[in-house]
């Protein structure tokens, strides 16, 4: 039932973003359009042949904790063997360390297909990539040789060890410690919670990236350092040697994402646990933040992929299943019409299409910024893109997590009673997607990150850049066939949004708690404006291609209709949100705990 | 973690609705306030002691189909034994047939507690009540003696057999047939899908209420008749005799509601299946509709109960769990604050409180209308209440199904990663509640029922009655302390809603499909206006009690704050919806299937 749609991916990558231009950059000379499409073909084939088939069974039979080890479906290891052999573990890494130097946009597009097919199995390489990125950015050459290279080769997997049982979102309260040892390494002691991929028997080794405090360092987040803690120690020759003292203490059993082991890990409890400092002491959080930004875009993309899988499954169902008649035709003898003929089913499909393709555009736009930052020579321009990427990262994480989960809810609704059973994939996708508003920072955390930090950065330069880019696209839309009304609407919403932002910046400066009280509403509101922009960008390209009779007319009409849907059904919702934000509504902070 | 809150229930039943007044009616003389509270005490005790403890294990180990029979957790039968012994199977039925003649409001309040504790186990008696209602309303005295009495006693359970594999929402397309037999009974042949409680080994017998067509009858829904089809035939002495030809063909495996068997049943496939006509031939659908209205209010109430369970669980967690610090306090050495101190956590709790208590008010208001209709002497007044109940039924079904599901989403969010695990009840409640927008008529069906039928009934008399009642409460609110602003806001939203309704009525008359294209948006919009009214009614009472220093001041302040939340965060959303409805937006119907 889940099918991968390459048409939209091609439209977004090539027609909207023009990623093949990156082949002009020294880093990406191998990635012309043909090569990109070849990479996507390979990813699609592996996703469909090796990831998709075991997705349902992996959900039904989740990994188990047996005799201190993780037992799981052998199909996971088999799928990852194919993934490894195609080189995807090293997709975006430097050739120097065995990587393929793929543009981030292209790597993201491959991830999208793997996650659509099977988010549980996909998590292992995606966590590995995140962990490897940290070593690539901040590790020593010796650490890179010992740990990064085998991760790029897909022989070692990686994890992120941030949360602890008593400190979820609040990293300042972590209590894992790192005591210096004589040889320059550290003894790690503590417990980490919610560690995805924290143990398994698939890879030769697991490289945990662990946040811990070196005793005597500054209090709070300023005293956090980053460590490499391997499951097995690695000799100078790169061979795996003895077991390190990081021990699986238990598996968490979740509503969804059941294919990914999620663990409680003990460090240094029964036997010594050795860790290696990455970069400077006490800089762990800033290193981790860089990784977290990428991880957050990845979480958003995962939400999009789950939304897309549900959209394709429910669309296929709506095109096949006869049900009832139109309200205009009351003759019970007339044949039933297909589900897709009903207005409300189309609304449910349009809502999914608008959410999924709008959010995918934002994920890819974010990746395109990463590519520009990596390859751009002009300092100012790079700085602008960095600030813009910082600003939209919480949106790229949260908006899909909210609205593609909503899309999964709609997918179930299209299938009705069948959608609620475990015989169809849509209920699983809905369960899986419920994780995304939680991990890598909840909505509430993203909201405070956006309004309490990103909006204020560099005197609001990120917001100015965002407004400038949106205005440029509004100008293009004004010139395009049939898009003037949308352009006008977005211009109005944008200018009101800027005004609201100004008020809130002032309020946050005066009293952070009161100013941030409705940060989540702000995140949601700005998210809708940004997604409307993403739709207008797509519509401009679709209108142009349509007028040039370039491409499938049905597909292009669908793009324009989905854009229209977003502007008719979604964007207008932001007005009520801005009214609430503008008056600094204090309902939530004046409500007293004992009034509940 | 799930606790039952009696304070709000008492406030709603006694202070807002004044249900004890019903003791003045001949039917309910036994139900003064003390007796009502005694019934609620008994229900609470059984819910907490016998329903709640096995809710999680029943979800984890769902009923299985073994050797043609259903095997399930023995705790279900035990819980229902206590339920039966307390007389709850006969709660609302006439004393003549062994019932307790309980007011519907009170019966609903008991259901609320049972469903909060364990929705899977609760389904068996609730389906039995629905089926028994049909016999009580339309069956012959002989049918009542043979089937209703043992259902009222809780010895026989009941089911509703409407849907078929090829016809879910579309009853006109059912193909189950009923051939007349010589003795006046019928031979039933066909397959019924999604039958909750369709088989089990708990009750002595199962009484299926089956929709089928008598050959030669009118086409479509006008040819549907209603039959009693018992699992075991029943002798003249009331004793269960031989097995009837209704056979369990399989169990459906769902995302939630796992404790309730959900079945595919075959009728008359291998052995003859005897059914007994209820009422007149070809009137089955109108009989079933009466039952469906009650069932729909019951579905809405189930959604509220699940929402309430999640709200209480997440509230308890937020009051216990330390996490982070306020944005105003950056000192990492300061102690962590409780989750409930964070503005965004309060928003998630307020959203739940506003949804759950607002929706409960609507469920109870609907039940109060049932009580008024049953006991009222004045014909005009009864007719008005009937039309109002008809009008609000799709809202009482759908609004809680949408927004209390959203509440369950928020409950998970409050618990963060813990909420996503199966160690806490909130993920189960969320899975359970996802059924409610589907069964007993999907949102889309409810929306068409509302705008295409209920709004038009009796020249819009239902809408006029609704507006009249809301305006009366607005006048009260104007006179109350601190509620003038809310009263004014609701008055404005109401008058705009009436204007929009007029436009849509006109449009539906001109072209049903176009007029009904956004019926779901109308349902959602009118639902918000109705819930705002429910909150204003509660606020009027809370303000009065507060000024009279009558009752717990914290509770009353909480009511006023939740009302304020609804008027600040929720009601304003309807403006954008009305704008879309007013312009008869045709995005969904102009989108062509091949454009997706």
Structural description of this entry:
The structure is a homodimer of 596-residue chains. With 596 residues, chain A is of the alpha+beta class. Chain A has a domain of 147 residues. Chain A is built from 19 helices and 12 strands. In chain A, strands 3, 4, 5, 6, 7, 10, 11 and 12 form an 8-stranded mixed β-sheet that branches. In chain A, a hairpin with a 5-residue loop joins strand 8 and strand 9. In chain A, helix 5 runs antiparallel to helix 6 and helix 6 packs antiparallel against helix 8. The longest helix of chain A has 37 residues. The model of chain A has no long low-confidence stretch (mean pLDDT 96).
Biggest interface, chains and residue tallies: A-B, 102 and 102 residues
Number of helices of chain A: 19
Low-confidence stretches of chain A: none
Oligomer: homodimer
Q: State which percent range the strand residues of chain A make up.
A: 5-15%
Q: Write down how many β-strands of chain A occur, each being a DSSP E stretch of 2 or more residues.
A: 12
Sheet with most strands of chain A: 8 strands, mixed
* Gyration radius over CA of chain A: 24 Å
How many angstroms separate the termini of chain A?
A: 45 Å
Please state the structural category of chain A. alpha+beta
Global geometry of chain A: globular
Overall average pLDDT of chain A: 96
The percent of residues in helical segments of chain A reads 55-70%
Keywords (chains A, B): FAD, Flavoprotein, Oxidoreductase
Domain Acyl-CoA oxidase/dehydrogenase middle (chains A, B): 160-266
Family (chains A, B): Belongs to the acyl-CoA dehydrogenase family.
Domain Acetyl-CoA dehydrogenase-like C-terminal (chains A, B): 471-591
């Amino acid at each position: 039932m889940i099918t991968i749609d390459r048409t939209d991916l091609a439209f977004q990558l090539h027609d909207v973003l023009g990623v093949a231009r990156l082949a002009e950059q020294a880093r990406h000379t191998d990635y012309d359009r043909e090569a990109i499409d070849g990479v996507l073909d390979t990813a699609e084939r592996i996703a469909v042949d090796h990831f998709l088939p075991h997705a349902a069974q992996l959900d039904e039979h989740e990994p188990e904790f047996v005799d201190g080890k993780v037992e799981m479906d052998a199909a996971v290891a088999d799928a990852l063997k194919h993934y490894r052999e195609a080189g995807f573990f090293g997709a975006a890494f430097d050739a120097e360390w065995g990587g393929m130097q793929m543009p981030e946009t292209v790597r993201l597009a491959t991830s999208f297909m793997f996650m659509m097919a099977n988010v549980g199995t996909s998590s292992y390489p995606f966590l590995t990539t995140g962990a490897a990125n940290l070593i690539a950015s901040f590790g020593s050459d010796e650490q890179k040789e010992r740990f990064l290279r085998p991760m790029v080769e897909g022989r070692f997997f990686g994890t992120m060890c941030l949360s602890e049982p008593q400190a979820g979102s609040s990293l300042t309260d972590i209590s894992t410690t790192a005591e210096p040892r004589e040889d320059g390494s550290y003894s790690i002691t503590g417990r980490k919670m919610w560690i995805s991929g924290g143990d398994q028997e698939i890879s030769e080794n697991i490289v945990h990236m662990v946040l811990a405090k070196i005793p005597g360092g500054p209090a709070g987040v300023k005293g956090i350092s980053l460590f490499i803690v391997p499951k097995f120690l690695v000799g100078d020759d790169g061979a795996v040697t003895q077991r390190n003292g990081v021990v699986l203490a238990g598996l968490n059993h979740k509503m969804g994402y059941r294919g990914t082991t999620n663990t409680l890990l003990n460090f240094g409890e029964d036997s010594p646990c050795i860790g290696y400092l990455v970069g400077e002491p006490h800089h762990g959080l800033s290193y981790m933040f860089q990784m977290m930004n990428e991880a957050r875009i990845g979480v958003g993309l995962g939400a999009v992929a789950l939304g897309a899988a549900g959209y394709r499954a429910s669309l296929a169902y709506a095109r096949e299943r006869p049900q009832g008649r139109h309200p205009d035709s009351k003759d019970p003898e007339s044949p039933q019409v297909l589900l897709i003929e009903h207005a409300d089913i189309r609304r449910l499909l349009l809502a999914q299409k608008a959410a999924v393709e709008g959010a995918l555009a934002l994920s890819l736009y974010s990746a395109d910024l990463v590519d520009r930052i990596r390859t751009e020579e002009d300092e100012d321009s790079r700085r602008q893109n960095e600030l813009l990427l910082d600003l939209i990262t919480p949106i790229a994480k949260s908006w899909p997590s909210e609205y593609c989960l909503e899309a999964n809810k709609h997918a179930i609704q299209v299938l009705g009673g069948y959608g609620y059973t475990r015989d169809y994939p849509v209920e699983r996708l809905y369960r899986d997607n419920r994780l995304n508003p939680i991990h890598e920072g909840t909505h509430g955390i993203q909201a405070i990150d956006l309004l309490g930090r990103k909006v204020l950065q560099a005197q609001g330069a990120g917001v100015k850049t965002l407004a400038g880019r949106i205005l440029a696209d509004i100008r293009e839309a004004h010139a395009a066939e049939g898009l003037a009304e949308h352009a006008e609407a977005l211009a109005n919403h944008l200018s009101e949004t800027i005004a609201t932002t100004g008020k809130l910046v002032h309020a946050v400066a005066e009293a952070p708690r009161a100013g941030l009280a409705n940060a989540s509403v702000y995140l949601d509101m700005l998210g809708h404006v940004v997604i409307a922009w993403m739709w207008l960008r797509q519509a401009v390209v679709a209108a142009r291609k349509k007028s040039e009779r370039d491409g499938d007319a049905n597909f292009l009409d669908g793009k324009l209709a989905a854009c229209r849907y977003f502007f008719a059904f979604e964007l207008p919702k932001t007005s009520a949100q801005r009214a609430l934000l503008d008056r600094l509504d204090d309902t939530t902070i004046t409500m007293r705990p004992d009034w509940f």
